[in-house]
Amino acid sequence: MTCSPTPDPILRSEHLGRVVNEKILVEDANFEVRTGEVLAIVGPSGSGKSSLLRLLNRLDEPTSGTVYLEGIDYRQIAPRELRRKLGMVNQRPYLFPGTVEQNLQFGPLQRGESLSKDSVEELLGRVGLKGYASRNVANLSGGEAQRVSVARTLANSPLVLLLDEPTSALDETSKREVESSLQTIVRDQGLTCILVTHDTAQAARLAGRAIVLASGRVARHGPINEVLHA
Amino acid sequence: MLKLLFSNQLYLVLAQALVAAIAAMVVVLLAHKRGIHLESETIVAMLRGIIQITAVGSILLLLLRAPRWTSIFLLAAMIIAAGATSARRAKDMPGAFRVSAWSIAFGSGSVIAIMTWLGVIDTAITSLVPVGSMLITNAMNTNGLALNRFRADVLAHAGEIETALSLGADAKHSVAPYVQAAFESSLIPAIDSLRSLGIVWIPGLMAGMLLSGARPVYAAIYQFVVLAMIFAASGLTSLVSTLLIRDGIFTAAQQLSLQPGR
């Protein structure tokens, strides 16, 4: 399902934690992700999965520990550059008003670049939406919108793709479409991914390793089959 | 009718105030019937209003003989009070009072200073303080509207804002549509006042000037002057407050600190 990971860790979380108003959201999270692998973060609702992903993207500030991206403490990296390198896809696509192409151009425009028509079509092809560039996002189905959201994140050429429950707000048909696109991206391009999901079957289909969160702490981690069947 | 009942001017004005307050309370009762509870806020606001305006009237009476420079302190105190009142509309926003006070001070203060220097506002304390207070009050209302709208938009669109941040946008860009919407919506009352001037309403200042014997054309044009100054002061205030508050809702690491449920 996934490409064989190379030995070097691209991202390492070291004693990562966040406490807000004495409430522990994430506590002492230690794990690493190797280039080309897919790591699933699973656990029940409220276990801190999304909070952990927000810390990795530095949308929230850790109250303890840190994250190393390619061996560099991520606090040393400018937040905008860090977020470009750690591309995030949310549960809801949050597309900006306008066309599909305008959404794909958003990220590159932030650093003064723009995508060629061919690049836009190539990105849309990666999520199975060739020919959609000029469509208005208001007319897309839920599954199409989420795939545009994935393509929009890929337009930034991220080193790691952070997926926060990317199919949980979709119906079964749309869920299969999005998952199929993600499998293509992971399998064909060997993109490093961290997938947050409460769906263990989906985690088994997409990921090679998993960590299980419980009350903000890493309860188990290891190869997907061992962790999910422990 | 009230004039037939009260020959004493003090009793007459108190009766007029009572009737106006009853009219306001009728609205509160109608709102109550629709499940909208404005009772305590309205009663407190009316009591505060009558006490404050009576106090200011008394102070103005004392200040008639005071040196002109004392009006600066009076206007400064009004700006601070306006900042505190306005900030209550956005109390969970970081630095709401500081932003409000500075914005109102800059917006109304600069217009008052320039217009006084040019001679549009008379330096007499009886002219500078009432006209200045009109500018400060309207700047306060505009600031409150801007902060309220901006806060509501940011809370409703936190997902979109963080998506933009996740895609590498800087903090300013991620909230630009909401800054613009807050600025535009906050100026609607000032624009509508200018648009409807003389057709829908004859403002109090003009009515007062007419009652005191000023020529109608002069009173009318001066009313336009005041409303244009109000627009300028309100616009500057909103421009500054939306920019200052925009920067205040992000951390140094460009994280959105104003979040639903936090």
Elements of chain B, N to C (H/E): HHHHHHHHHHHH
What is the terminal-to-terminal distance of chain B? 55 Å
Oligomer: heterodimer
Give the strand content of chain B: under 5%
What percentage of amino acids of chain A are in beta strands? 25-35%
End-to-end C-alpha gap of chain A:
21 Å
Enumerate the strands of the largest sheet of chain A in spatial order, edge to edge or round the barrel: 6-7-8-3-9-10
Q: Find the count of extended strands of chain A (DSSP E, 2+ residues).
A: 10
CATH superfamily of one domain in chain A: P-loop containing nucleotide triphosphate hydrolases
Assign an overall shape of chain A.
globular
The rounded Rg of chain A comes to 17 Å
- Structural domain tally of chain B: 2
Provide the structure class of chain B: mainly alpha
Low-confidence residue ranges of chain A: 1-5
Helix-strand layout with pairing:
The complex is a heterodimer of chains A (230) and B (262).
Chain A (H helix, E strand, L loop, with lengths): L8 E12 L2 E12 L3 E5 L6 H8 L7 E6 L2 E2 L5 H7 E4 L10 H11 L6 H10 L15 H13 L5 E5 L7 H18 L2 E5 L3 H7 L2 E6 L2 E7 H5 L2
Parallel strand pairs in A: 3-8, 3-9, 6-7, 7-8
Antiparallel strand pairs in A: 1-2, 1-4, 4-5, 9-10
Helix pairs in contact in A: 3-5, 5-6
Chain B lengths: L1 H4 L3 H25 L5 H25 L6 H18 L8 H23 L6 H32 L1 H9 L4 H4 L1 H11 L1 H8 L8 H8 L4 H33 L14
Helix pairs in contact in B: 2-3, 4-5, 4-6, 5-6, 5-12, 6-9, 6-12, 9-12, 10-12, 11-12
